[in-house]
Amino acid sequence: MRGLMQDRPLDVATLMRRVERMFGHKRVITATTNGEMVTPWHQVVGRARRLAAALDLLDVPPRARVGTFGWNSQRHVELYLAVPTSGRILHTLNHRLHAAELTYIVNDAADDVLFVDRSLLPTVWPLIEQFPTVRHVVVMDDGGTEPLPDDPRVRDYEALLNEVPAPAPPVAVDENDAASLCYTSGTTGRPKGVLYSHRSIVLHALLLLGADSFAISERDVVLPIVPMFHVNAWGLPYASMLAGTDLVLPGPAMSPAALASQMSRHRVTFAAGVPAIWRGLLPLLPQTDLSALRMVVSGGSALPESLALAWHQATGVMITSSWGMTEASPLVACSRLATVHDGLGQEEQRALLGTPGPTVPLTEARLIDDSGDPVEHDGVTPGELQVAGPTIAAGYFGAEPGAAAFTDDGWLRTGDIATIDRYGYLRIVDRTKDLVKSGGEWISSVELENEIMAHPEVVEAAVIGIPDDRWGERPLACVLTTAGSDFDAAALRAHLTGRVASWWIPEQVWVLPEIPRTPTGKVSKLALRQLHASRQQ
Amino acid sequence: MRGLMQDRPLDVATLMRRVERMFGHKRVITATTNGEMVTPWHQVVGRARRLAAALDLLDVPPRARVGTFGWNSQRHVELYLAVPTSGRILHTLNHRLHAAELTYIVNDAADDVLFVDRSLLPTVWPLIEQFPTVRHVVVMDDGGTEPLPDDPRVRDYEALLNEVPAPAPPVAVDENDAASLCYTSGTTGRPKGVLYSHRSIVLHALLLLGADSFAISERDVVLPIVPMFHVNAWGLPYASMLAGTDLVLPGPAMSPAALASQMSRHRVTFAAGVPAIWRGLLPLLPQTDLSALRMVVSGGSALPESLALAWHQATGVMITSSWGMTEASPLVACSRLATVHDGLGQEEQRALLGTPGPTVPLTEARLIDDSGDPVEHDGVTPGELQVAGPTIAAGYFGAEPGAAAFTDDGWLRTGDIATIDRYGYLRIVDRTKDLVKSGGEWISSVELENEIMAHPEVVEAAVIGIPDDRWGERPLACVLTTAGSDFDAAALRAHLTGRVASWWIPEQVWVLPEIPRTPTGKVSKLALRQLHASRQQ
Q1: N or C, which terminus of chain A has less Cβ within 10 Å?
Q2: Do B18 and A195 make contact, defined as CB atoms within 8 angstroms?
């Protein structure tokens, strides 16, 4: 017997109608090269409805992929709305990828049209002949000075909106229809496309409003520093629509000074980004008014304790860790202090907030050992972390079902080794492939990195396994130090003694001028391994 | 093209697994006649799994209705879990209804088994021969002293759980399957059954976690004073499972003294009930420690401003209004202070929190005039309030589709006249049938009641329309006054002059020893009209 409730889809159009009708007076604020664009939400939605009509004008078919190369901007928000609500699929692209990866991804997605910020044209246009499916390139003039190519495929965004006779009427969708597409960063193998549904986007937005996750409310001023090409900017634009917040967008102005100025001038209450962003802002904190700030969410890679401490001391705000994946919309877990943690000291509280924490509602986690058996959630025993839920991927775009990333019973294999305690708090022990196996025993590179980063002269640390004749593998510590430091292997040994097992302590330390990163800002252990291999030759 | 996300149902089993795995150490606390029962959630879930097996033992078929006559108690929570997760339908019954109504409802639902608190047996057992579909009566011993009937249909709850050889394995459900059933109080016509789905229950629980609705978090201690027979106790038990709160249940101990004691001893942070509850608690507030209380939600009928003021003065907590319907799971709207209300004084803030406020996410509201045309959301123009969303009913149990309560395009007609302002804030002007039409113009009985209740000697007021030869109808004020008051029509006229249009002021005032109520605690205007008619004879 079915329940007798209204059959209303969980779709992006619901979010759009809500922000238009109830929060039309709230604002989207975008930094531009010549100032700031401030637009009430009702106008943003009105423009999105015209944009949907423009896609009709360009004969973009239903379900076609609409690619975007854009900074975090109002026009990008308009695309977030217009593309899915008109029955097409929003495909956000990371302009920091290499040409070969971009070409692969655009062709794998078979993008029909690309929307490109003018300042990013130099990245995109030279590749255009490699994109046979792309029929139109719509340029969003963000104040860039790049000349526009004289080519019939090129259109101007604002001119196109002006050509439209009327806003497009709404298109009915099924909540399981695809709404957007984002590719994994592909640290191993080819990038893979994750195809979000309207349903997963709406459920994820609801989760971000939860008191124990991000608690996004109408009173918030939300700043997604995480790029809008990266997993729907962690879902924050959609959550902002649902809650009715002001939304502050940095545009191309990603310098620490520009971000600090935005945060202070607009009295930002909630900001989200990767640890490198928080590290970059650190020197500016003493002279920046962040009195409105209530929550800073860090994700994408592990949050060093030293960074969390420095932020806490400078602002009074403890940075909150979140943990997710492109395949998980992305939020899987978000840390917080629960009643069982009452009585912890500030240092322990900060450490706890630096772990992934408990899974969000609707998402379930389990640990599986090498034999495929479940591992107890005792906070000690590690296993491969697997996750399930309605906001988690079941497969990859264009791939055959049954990919190795999914178990037979449909859980996502995260590729991470974790522990879970009896209260559901996750701790990531390591990436499966980043464990160092020495003398037949595993060394956790993540734990080792955290301990090394506790040294006052170490800014950042990355540990990789290097071949060793006697032990199979030994850990190599790659570090970035503070200016003038004479940190070396002896200093490391002195620091780590008593903190980790003695056989974990790396014999070798490399002090590097810079830690190599992937295009999404994560430490590239692949590049470190290549560097090590090249130095051995 | 479908999104490639996991096909995981939004079902009650998801809530049950979450509270068991992550919040098993948190507690369900039930007041009983001989003390208090305190049980960790993991045991409650374990018992619910045994209860599901007991339903198998009793041969309760899939999709059968399992009726409950119970106070707010741990066993009732076990039924909330076991019945829907085992593929049956939980049917909560209001034991305060008259025998004829109960008989109608049990037979309309065709309940297969009834679970009855021992103290409620005197209400239920005398009717048992009128319930031909009921095969079993399972008695939950709540310390009542009523003798158990010597009848093969009668079973003891605890004995039944002990008979079960093993907990029941989970039963897969579709998220649109029916999970529970609750009948409207039927102020007009027959009571009608609303059939909630697993999906609507989970979405509604998620909504209650939202920062701008009830913001239920793991740190909360939740006290649903609203009965568990009334629209799933406003969804609070399910929200508590999702968030992992302690859940405090008053059992049969519904006296103000017992409630105050529970709130203070367990440091309740969140409590919800009807205005009559808050009025009853008022005299006890000065000697009750409510320092943990962060939110009090009032619903079911309009919150008098004088009551809100008294609570605010005594506790520092401003009572929050919520507005809902049995047909709406029930929450439609929940008031709060938005950024546009910054700068309001405390009195204005309290008044605003006393209105229904904005709709919760996923629920949409519109106003329709007599001609069926939409009315502008200008905060002034009234229209019939209609609502839509995935937690709103599409029809009634056992009824033909196309009931008068639903529009052709599938919206629920609430039967209330409301205004909506440009920020989405609802104000209820009147029940459609409670408007007084005098001299061809409408008088809002709700507004008039609120103004009358602002008089210091008026405890409660209800206005009905009475026939009038000259004007068609005139308002009659029925009031309950403070002890010793000599409040009369002249006092009313003096009080209302300047507050409402002069032609709104009732010529007649009835000072009653008691305001008649419906079984769910609402003022019964039907009874007042009958009283008026009988006095005219």
Answers
A1: C
A2: no
